[in-house]
């Protein structure tokens, strides 16, 4: 059986030398104690090198312990059995190592969780202590506020007593003021009644005076209207008489001139001239007649205006408080 050659790399040589040293000390080499002894190297490299070293070491031990009196076939069978047992042990060791590693990882996770829980508990404890401090501060503040409130209550009670005394004083003053106000109100009512009586009497006097003035004004307006109407009638009679005289004179003149016109053609021109003058006189008389008619119309309009003024004065007197506007 050919034994595996020793590795030539430095880290592999150091790993196998350390394993040999541990075996010489009576300790079976593992990844942990080899790495602790070396102080360096990765777990994967150490594990691979230890696996090769174990095969080499077990093969060497097997070859060194072979019995010379055994047949070759038996020796080979024993070597094969030994190699198989070593491989089986190696696999079981790897399985056990994996289980231990998984358990170690689980323990590490549990430790991390316990540590986190411990940190959370410590934080909660600190928070509870802070909350307790705040509660104590709040309690102290409430006690101080209670003391201040009690002091304020005492001050308010004292102020209430003062307010009650002031209220009693003000009540007396209010009663006195109410009595004075009632007396002043009665005096004002008496004076108001006197002023009202004087105002009523004065109003009655002013109403009587206004009525007298209105009656006098109405009589004056009626008298003026009658006088103007009489003057208008007289003027109209004079105008009518004048017009009648003029018409009679015109008729006489026309008759006279007509007779003379029939009697003499020589006097025709003179008669025509006199006729024209007479016509002018007639036009003047007609103009005077028209003027008299216009004056009569103006007199009628003036009488209507006087009647309207009289009606307006009566309306103002009826709607006023006794004094004409």
TrEMBL record:
InterPro entries documented for this protein: KfrA_DNA-bd_N
Residue ranges that the Swiss-Prot or TrEMBL entry lists as coiled coil: 86-288
Keyword field: Coiled coil
Boundaries of every KfrA N-terminal DNA-binding domain copy: 13-120
Protein name as annotated: KrfA protein
Organism of origin: Microvirgula aerodenitrificans
Taxonomy of the source species: Bacteria, Pseudomonadati, Pseudomonadota, Betaproteobacteria, Neisseriales
């Amino acid at each position: 059986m050919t034994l595996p050659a020793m590795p030539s790399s430095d880290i592999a040589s150091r790993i196998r030398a350390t394993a040999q040293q541990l075996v010489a000390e009576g300790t079976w080499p593992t990844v942990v104690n080899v790495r602790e002894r070396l102080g360096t190297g990765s777990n994967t490299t150490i594990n691979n090198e230890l696996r090769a070293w174990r095969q080499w070491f077990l093969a060497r031990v097997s070859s060194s312990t072979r019995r010379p009196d055994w047949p070759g076939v038996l020796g080979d069978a024993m070597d094969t059995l030994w190699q198989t047992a070593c491989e089986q042990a190696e696999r079981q060791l790897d399985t056990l190592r994996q289980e231990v590693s998984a358990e170690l990882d689980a323990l590490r996770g549990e430790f991390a969780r316990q540590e986190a829980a411990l940190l959370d508990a410590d934080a909660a404890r600190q928070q509870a202590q802070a909350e307790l401090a705040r509660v104590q501060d709040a309690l102290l503040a409430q006690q101080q506020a209670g003391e201040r409130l009690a002091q304020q209550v005492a001050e308010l009670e004292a102020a209430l007593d003062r307010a009650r005394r002031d209220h009693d004083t003000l009540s007396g003053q209010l009663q006195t003021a109410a009595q004075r106000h009632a007396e002043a109100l009665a005096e004002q009512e008496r004076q108001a009644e006197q002023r009202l009586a004087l105002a009523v009497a004065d109003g009655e006097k002013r109403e009587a005076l206004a009525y007298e003035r209105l009656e006098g004004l109405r009589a004056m307006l009626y008298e003026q209207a009658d006088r103007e109407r009489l003057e208008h009638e007289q003027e109209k009679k004079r105008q009518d008489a004048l017009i009648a005289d003029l018409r009679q004179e015109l008729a006489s003149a026309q008759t006279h001139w007509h007779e003379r016109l029939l009697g003499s053609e020589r006097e025709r021109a003179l008669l025509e001239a006199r006729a024209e003058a007479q016509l002018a006189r007639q036009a003047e008389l007609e103009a005077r007649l028209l003027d008299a008619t216009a004056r009569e119309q103006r007199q009628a309009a003036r009488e209507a205006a006087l009647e309207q003024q009289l009606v307006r004065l009566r309306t103002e007197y009826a709607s006023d408080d006794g004094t004409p506007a």
